[in-house]
Amino acid sequence: MSEKNSVGLVKAKLVKITKPLKLTSGKKLPNYELAYETYGKLNAKKNNAVLVCHALSGNHHVAGRYKKDDKYPGWWDNLIGPGRPLDTDRFFVIGVNNLGGCHGTSGSMSINPKTKKRWGSDFPIVTVEDWVNTQAALIDQLGIESLAAVIGGSIGGMQAMQWALSYPKRVRHAIVIAAAPNLTAQNVAFNEVARQAIITDPDFYNGDYYRFKKKPKRGLRVARMLGHITYLSDDAMDLKFGRKLKNKNIEYSFDVNFEMESYLHHQGDKFAEEFDANTYLRMTRALDYFDPAKDYQGNLSKAFKKVEADFLVVSFTSDWRFSPQRSKEIVKALLDNELTVSYAEVTAQHGHDAFLMSDPHYHGILTTYFKKIANQL
């Protein structure tokens, strides 16, 4: 896609929600702020809004650039814009940074109104259900009664599912990409190892590192490196790096010898500079806790009984963290309730990260589906 298909220069916005929020954990927030961005225009009927839910390390900056010389656009820029699969000439697109985030939304880095200091470790644990409730509060503020669609990949796809569960009358289409109805034991294990890397960093200070002007960069770096391995497929890593050496010869040391190692170090270092450790802990915990079937004896079909939205479910053949089999569990539960569901399994080499890529087949599926939604407006 060319730059003419871009949404162009964008600005982040901040909204304060003054209605108290009761969290799934039982704790309450008297008020909170949400950082968000919008692209395109809300139509007269206010029925063309699409909410984009971000994955673990994402935020509200979904498309466009803040300045012309920004090196990178928003994290899903290849999907959103005039003439792109999620066409901003037809849809009003909303991106929001989830509660507990570190990009302007209330979280551990924010000021606790009671103490006048950063929340730090006192910021409560949040869940996917909590995120969806805060997103609904934002939608209320924007004067939107129902959403044309909610879309997300990975934990963003879980939020799209939860929207259909929590607000069946307020979402007409749920687009669930590279997601699962809950985490496998292996995925919970990956998250726990990542959290332990952060928690055991000497600079973590039980989550109150801000007070000491420290940052648990070493732990955050290792957590990101581990996570990144799970986002890529073996084929993608082999194709990109293989066993290529960083320098000509083996150095017989524990310094970086392989290109793969160099890549992981780069990703880890970059992430540790940009992201907040407390946010990472809370995002992974929300991922662990997501399980719509938990109150239905593990029966996902029963959990989906109140759902009214149409669904598009997309999986990728090389995604071993959220395999196509897990997407098929979602599809079966929807069909058991005689709901309208489309399913696509895309052949792709990129692993879990495939949902972020500009793959012609994948984007073609989304283009077709969004055209169908646009024709219903």
TrEMBL record:
<dbReference type="GO" id="GO:0004414">
    <property type="term" value="F:homoserine O-acetyltransferase activity"/>
</dbReference>
<comment type="similarity">
    <text>Belongs to the AB hydrolase superfamily. MetX family.</text>
</comment>
<dbReference type="Pfam" id="PF00561">
    <property type="entry name" value="Abhydrolase_1"/>
</dbReference>
<feature type="domain" description="AB hydrolase-1">
    <location>
        <begin position="48"/>
        <end position="356"/>
    </location>
</feature>
<keyword id="KW-0963">Cytoplasm</keyword>
<dbReference type="InterPro" id="IPR008220">
    <property type="entry name" value="HAT_MetX-like"/>
</dbReference>
<feature type="binding site">
    <location>
        <position position="353"/>
    </location>
    <ligand>
        <name>substrate</name>
    </ligand>
</feature>
<dbReference type="InterPro" id="IPR029058">
    <property type="entry name" value="AB_hydrolase_fold"/>
</dbReference>
<protein>
    <recommendedName>
        <fullName>Homoserine O-succinyltransferase</fullName>
        <ecNumber>2.3.1.46</ecNumber>
    </recommendedName>
</protein>
<keyword id="KW-0012">Acyltransferase</keyword>
<dbReference type="GO" id="GO:0005737">
    <property type="term" value="C:cytoplasm"/>
</dbReference>
<dbReference type="GO" id="GO:0008899">
    <property type="term" value="F:homoserine O-succinyltransferase activity"/>
</dbReference>
<keyword id="KW-0808">Transferase</keyword>
<dbReference type="GO" id="GO:0009092">
    <property type="term" value="P:homoserine metabolic process"/>
</dbReference>
<feature type="site" description="Important for acyl-CoA specificity">
    <location>
        <position position="321"/>
    </location>
</feature>
<feature type="active site">
    <location>
        <position position="319"/>
    </location>
</feature>
<feature type="binding site">
    <location>
        <position position="224"/>
    </location>
    <ligand>
        <name>substrate</name>
    </ligand>
</feature>
<comment type="function">
    <text>Transfers a succinyl group from succinyl-CoA to L-homoserine, forming succinyl-L-homoserine.</text>
</comment>
<keyword id="KW-0486">Methionine biosynthesis</keyword>
<keyword id="KW-0028">Amino-acid biosynthesis</keyword>
<comment type="pathway">
    <text>Amino-acid biosynthesis; L-methionine biosynthesis via de novo pathway; O-succinyl-L-homoserine from L-homoserine: step 1/1.</text>
</comment>
<feature type="active site" description="Nucleophile">
    <location>
        <position position="154"/>
    </location>
</feature>
<dbReference type="InterPro" id="IPR000073">
    <property type="entry name" value="AB_hydrolase_1"/>
</dbReference>
<feature type="active site">
    <location>
        <position position="352"/>
    </location>
</feature>
<dbReference type="GO" id="GO:0009086">
    <property type="term" value="P:methionine biosynthetic process"/>
</dbReference>
<comment type="subunit">
    <text>Homodimer.</text>
</comment>
